[in-house]
Amino acid sequence: MSAQSAATIQDAFLKHLRDNKLDVTMFLVNGIKLQGQIRQFDNFTILLVRGSGTQVVYKHAISSIHPAEPIERTDPASVG
């Protein structure tokens, strides 16, 4: 899998979570659990909002992102 297609999958996943305002749980590489909604993201960071609090999370620190509900995503490369 090329770096370009990996970025496309990541961007599509994050865009879906942001656009649908889904609650997510992020696990960081050091074991810390963060919860909230993704408000914005770029190549290096994700803006996570919960209540009145906002956190900037560096992508390199994230181990996994779990949406609160299952989502169906198609492979962006297969969509024509």
Short description:
This protein is an alpha+beta fold and 80 residues long.
Structure description:
Strand 1 and strand 2 (33-41) form a beta hairpin. Strands 4-3-2-1-5 form a five-stranded antiparallel sheet. It has a single domain (3-67), classed as SH3 type barrels (Roll). The two termini are 18 Å apart. The protein is α+β, with helices and mostly antiparallel strands. It has one helix and five strands. Helix content is 21%, strand content 41%. RNA chaperone that binds small regulatory RNA (sRNAs) and mRNAs to facilitate mRNA translational regulation in response to envelope stress, environmental stress and changes in metabolite concentrations. Also binds with high specificity to tRNAs. Keywords: RNA-binding, Stress response. Pfam families: Hfq. InterPro entries: Hfq (IPR005001), LSM_dom_sf (IPR010920), Sm (IPR047575).
Principal-axis shape: globular
The CATH topology turns out to be SH3 type barrels
Strand content: 35-45%
Using DSSP, what is the number of strands?
5
Tally of contiguous helical segments: 1
Q: For this entry, what is the oligomeric state of its chains?
A: single chain
Give start-end ranges of low-pLDDT stretches: none
Biggest beta sheet summary: 5 strands, antiparallel
Q: Radius of gyration, Cα only, in angstroms?
A: 13 Å
Which class best fits the helix and strand makeup?
alpha+beta
Q: CATH class, anyone?
A: Mainly Beta
Estimate the helix proportion, in percent.
10-25%
Distance between the termini: 18 Å
Q: How are the strands ordered across the major sheet?
A: 4-3-2-1-5
Keywords: RNA-binding, Stress response
Function: RNA chaperone that binds small regulatory RNA (sRNAs) and mRNAs to facilitate mRNA translational regulation in response to envelope stress, environmental stress and changes in metabolite concentrations. Also binds with high specificity to tRNAs.
GO biological process, one term: regulation of DNA-templated transcription
Pfam families: Hfq (PF17209)
